[in-house]
Amino acid sequence: MIVWRTVSLDWTYDHLGGHGAAAFPGRWNQRGERTIYTAGSLSLAMLETLIYLQPPYPTRLLLEMEVPDNRIHSDTNLFNSPDIVRDKRRSRPYGSGWLREQKHLAIRVPSVLFPDKYSAAEHNLLINPEHPDIRQVTIRSTGEWNPDQRFQR
């Protein structure tokens, strides 16, 4: 599966380390837990980034990554449980359990940017950087992304 990620230019050394998420917890991890957040499409990666940035938007590093399909877990319950996905008090413990379990290299999770009925079409992929198969994740290409300043309107 091809996934996309944007990274602050301050964190370019940490493509597959997950230290940013450990320092700044996301929807699916607690502080101190290394996690790599990616998106199933380039446009979703950009949207997921823009909701956290303040204008004027800084240049970011864009990563195109590949994760082996047979290392990705899909929990269909997540795509039918908006109460877990939309409530960080429930999504973070779920993600923490997944990370600790070390059963899967990656897990497909819904994006909360879209209505629940579209969550299968627009999803994110979490990658566990501490999983033994992390070396199977490859970075296919990188490049700078300068967000269009019209987004600030």
Describe it:
With 153 residues, the chain is α+β, with helices and mostly antiparallel strands. It has one domain. The protein is 24% helix and 25% strand. The chain has 5 helices and 7 strands; from the N terminus they run βαβαββαααβββ. The chain has a 4-stranded mixed beta sheet with strand order 2-6-5-4. It has a 3-stranded antiparallel beta sheet with strand order 1-3-7, covered by helices on one side. The radius of gyration is 15 Å and the shape is globular. The termini are far apart.
Put the structure in a nutshell.
With 153 residues, the chain is of the alpha+beta class. It has helices at residues 19-23, 42-50, 76-79, 82-86, 88-101, and strands at residues 2-8, 36-39, 60-66, 72-74, 106-110, 123-127, 138-145. The radius of gyration is 15 Å and the shape is globular.
What is the secondary structure topology, with strand pairs?
Elements: E1 2-8, H1 19-23, E2 36-39, H2 42-50, E3 60-66, E4 72-74, H3 76-79, H4 82-86, H5 88-101, E5 106-110, E6 123-127, E7 138-145
Parallel strand pairs: 4-5
Antiparallel strand pairs: 1-3, 2-6, 3-7, 5-6
Quick one: overall form?
globular
Percentage of residues in helical conformation:
10-25%
Measured distance between first and last alpha carbons: 34 Å
Number of continuous helical runs: 5
Given helix and strand content, the structural type is alpha+beta
Radius of gyration: 15 Å
User: How would you sum up the major sheet?
Assistant: 4 strands, mixed
Mean pLDDT: 92
Number of strands: 7
Strand content: 25-35%
**Widest β-sheet, arrangement of strands:** 2-6-5-4
H/E element order:
EHEHEEHHHEEE
The structural domain count equals 1
Which residues form runs of ≥5 with pLDDT under 50?
Answer: none
